[in-house]
Specification:
- By secondary structure, the protein is α/β, with parallel strands linked by helices.
- It folds into 2 domains: 281 residues, 3-Layer(aba) Sandwich (Aldehyde Dehydrogenase, Chain A, domain 1), CATH 3.40.605; 191 residues, Aldehyde Dehydrogenase, Chain A, domain 2 (3-Layer(aba) Sandwich).
- Helices cover 40% and strands 20% of the residues.
- The strands form 6 sheets. It has a 7-stranded mixed sheet, with helices on both faces.
- The protein binds 1,4-dihydronicotinamide adenine dinucleotide (NAI) and magnesium ion (MG).
Length: 495
C-alpha cells in the first residue's frame, strides 16, 4: 500500500510543539529545540521546545498558583464535566491522535484503533469517580463529647513523567486522576514521543480545564525530568518507565519527602500448560510478547512451556512469529512496527548476541529487517529464543523488544518457582483448560496482574501495577485515586 505522507506531514505541522505553561504554548527559556523522529523511516518529523530546569521552575510555579486559584473552587460536577468533555474531544479527534502516536513512535495503526475503548474509557472512568470521592465520620472513644471525621483533599502539584511506548493511553492515564481529584500537574513526556501529550494538553484546555492546571514541559530525562522529580514544590511524582530511572526518582524525591508512585518494567512469565487450547495459546502468548514490538511493560516475555508440548509449541509460536506482517505502522495491515529508535534496536540486537552466547537458540528471527521500504527504519524480526534457562540474562533482564525466551517445565510447582524467580512482578499469564490449575497459578504468581487464557488486556476499572522491582502503587481502579489524595482527620470537641 502507498502511504500519503503529505497528509501526515500536514497533521504534524498543525500540532503544538512548544512548552505548555499557564495555558499558553511558549518556547523554552533557553531557546533550544530537539527533534523527534519517525522510527519507521528514521526521518525527523518535528522540532520540539527543549525544556530544562528553568522551564520546570516556571511550570511548577504555574501549577502551584492554579492549585489555589479558581480550580480549587471547582465543584466535583465541574471537574467531572471537564473529563467528560475531554473524553468527547478525544473521541472526535481519535483518528488524528492515532496517527500522531504512529508517526512519533511506530505503533501500528491497527493497534491504536483497537485501543479506542481504553482511551475513552480511561477519561470516562475517572469522570465517574469524581463524585464518589469522600471522607467519612468515625466513631471514637468519646461518644457525644468528641466528633471526628475525615476529609479527602488533593495531594497538590503532581509531577508526571511518562515513557514513549504508549503515548496516548499512558498520558490520559496520568492526566485523568489529576483532574478527577483537583490536583494540578507538570507533565514531562518522553523525548522520543512528545507530540501526543502536547495535543492532549490543548484538548484539556478546550475541555474547560483552567490555565495552569496542566502544564507540559517536553525535554530530556536527565535535565527536565530530573528537575521535576527533585523539585521542592512538587508534592507527588507519578512515574512510568525503567526500573533504572525509577531508582533515580526515589532518590530525587527525598528532598521534600514526595509521594511517589512507580510503574516500572517486567520480565513477565506466560505459562503454557499441556492441557491448553493450543491455537489460542499460540496466538495469545505470541501477541503477548510481540505486540508493540515487545515494547510493553507487562509483555509476557518468558514463555514457560510444559515439556510434553514444548517442541510443538515452539514450532507453532515460531511459525506464528514468522507470519506477522512487519512494516510501517501507517499501513493498516501492519501487525508489528519498528522499535522506537536506533539505541533500542542496538539494545535488542545486543541481547540476541547475549542469548546466543549463553546457549539459547533462535528458532525464528534474531535479525534487523532492512529490505525495501524498511531500510531506514528500526525494524527487528519477531524472535523466539529456545533452550533458555531462567538464569540467563535474556530470561532475567527487560529487553523491551520482540523477543520471547522459551523455558521448559514439568510440574505446576516448578512453573510457579520459575515464574517467580525474577526481580520483577508486573504481570503473568496462564494457559490451561483445567480450572484448578488456573486458580492455583493465579494465586502462585507474585505479580500485580495475572491473565488466564488471554494476555495483556487492561481495563480502567481493573487496578494495574507491580510487585517487587516492578514498582509501587496501582493505576486504574478506585485504588488509583487514593494516590492523588491526602486524608485529613478532623477531631472536634462538642459542647
Ligand atoms: P527511561 O526510564 O529512561 O524513560 C522514561 C521517562 O523517564 C522519560 O520521560 C525520560 O525522559 C525520563 N527520565 C529519564 N531519566 C530521568 C531522570 N534521571 N529523572 C527523571 N526522569 C527521567 O526509559 P528509556 O531510556 O526510554 O528506555 C530504556 C529502557 O527502559 C527500555 O529498554 C525498557 O527496558 C525500559 N522501559 C520500560 C517502560 C515501561 O513501561 N515499563 C517504558 C520505557 C522504558
Ligand atoms: Mg519520535
Amino acid at each position: 500500500m502507498t502511504i500519503n505522507m503529505n497528509v501526515h506531514a500536514e497533521i504534524v505541522r498543525g500540532l503544538p510543539k512548544q512548552i505548555l505553561i499557564d495555558g499558553k504554548f511558549v518556547p523554552a527559556l533557553s531557546g533550544r529545540t530537539f527533534q523527534t523522529f519517525n522510527p519507521a523511516t528514521g526521518e525527523a518529523i518535528a522540532d520540539i521546545a527543549e525544556g530544562d530546569a528553568a522551564d520546570i521552575d516556571l511550570a511548577v510555579a504555574a501549577a502551584r498558583r492554579a492549585f489555589t486559584g479558581p480550580w480549587s473552587r471547582f465543584t466535583p460536577f465541574q471537574r467531572q464535566q471537564c473529563l467528560l468533555r475531554f473524553a468527547d474531544l478525544i473521541e472526535t479527534h481519535f483518528d488524528e491522535l492515532c496517527v500522531i502516536d504512529v508517526l512519533d513512535m511506530g505503533v501500528p495503526i491497527s493497534m491504536m484503533r483497537a485501543r479506542k475503548q481504553r482511551a475513552l474509557g480511561l477519561a470516562r472512568f475517572y469522570a465517574g469517580l469524581v463524585t464518589t470521592i469522600h471522607g467519612g465520620t468515625l466513631p471514637n472513644s468519646f461518644p457525644g463529647e468528641v466528633f471526628s471525621y475525615t476529609l479527602k483533599e488533593p495531594v497538590g502539584v503532581v509531577g508526571a513523567i511518562t515513557p514513549w511506548n504508549a503515548p496516548l493511553t499512558s498520558t490520559i492515564w496520568k492526566m485523568a486522576p489529576v483532574i478527577a481529584t483537583g490536583c494540578t500537574m507538570v507533565l514531562k513526556p518522553a523525548e522520543d514521543a512528545p507530540l501526543t501529550a502536547l495535543r492532549l494538553g490543548e484538548l484539556l484546555l478546550e475541555a474547560g480545564v483552567p490555565e495552569g492546571v496542566v502544564n507540559i514541559v517536553p525535554g530530556f530525562g536527565h535535565t527536565a525530568g530530573a528537575a521535576l522529580a527533585s523539585h521542592m514544590d512538587v508534592d507527588k511524582v507519578a512515574f512510568t518507565g525503567s526500573d533504572f530511572t525509577g531508582r533515580k526518582i526515589i532518590e530525587a524525591s527525598k528532598g521534600n519527602i514526595k509521594r511517589v508512585t512507580l510503574e516500572l518494567g517486567g520480565k513477565s512469565p506466560d505459562v503454557i500448560f499441556a492441557d491448553c487450547d493450543m491455537d489460542a495459546a499460540v496466538a495469545g502468548a505470541g501477541m503477548g510478547v510481540f505486540a508493540n514490538s515487545g515494547q510493553i511493560c507487562c509483555a509476557g516475555t518468558r514463555l514457560l512451556v510444559q515439556r510434553p508440548i514444548y517442541d510443538e509449541f515452539i514450532e507453532r509460536v515460531s511459525a506464528y512469529a514468522k507470519s506477522l506482517k512487519v512494516g510501517n505502522g501507517l499501513d493498516p495491515e501492519t501487525q508489528i512496527g519498528p522499535v522506537v529508535n536506533a539505541k533500542q534496536l542496538d539494545r535488542v540486537a545486543g541481547y540476541i548476541d547475549v542469548g546466543l552466547g549463553e546457549g539459547a537458540q533462535a528458532t525464528v528471527g534474531g535479525k534487523r529487517l532492512t529490505e525495501g521500504a524498511l531500510k531506514n527504519g528500526y525494524f527487528f524480526e519477531p524472535t523466539v529464543l529456545s533452550c533458555v534457562t531462567n538464569d540467563m540474562r535474556v530470561a532475567q533482564e527487560e529487553i523491551f523488544g520482540p523477543v520471547a525466551a522459551a523455558i521448559p517445565f514439568d510440574t505446576l510447582e516448578e512453573a510457579a518457582a520459575i515464574a517467580n524467580d525474577t526481580v520483577f512482578g508486573l504481570g503473568g499469564g496462564v494457559w490451561t483448560t483445567n480450572v484448578s490449575t488456573a486458580h492455583r497459578m493465579a494465586k502462585a504468581i507474585r505479580a500485580g496482574t495475572v491473565w488466564v487464557n488471554t494476555y495483556g488486556g487492561l481495563d480502567p476499572v481493573v487496578p494495574f501495577g507491580g510487585y517487587k522491582t516492578s514498582g509501587y502503587g496501582r493505576e486504574s481502579g478506585v485504588e488509583h485515586i487514593e494516590a492523588y489524595l491526602e486524608t485529613k482527620s478532623v477531631i472536634m470537641k462538642l459542647g
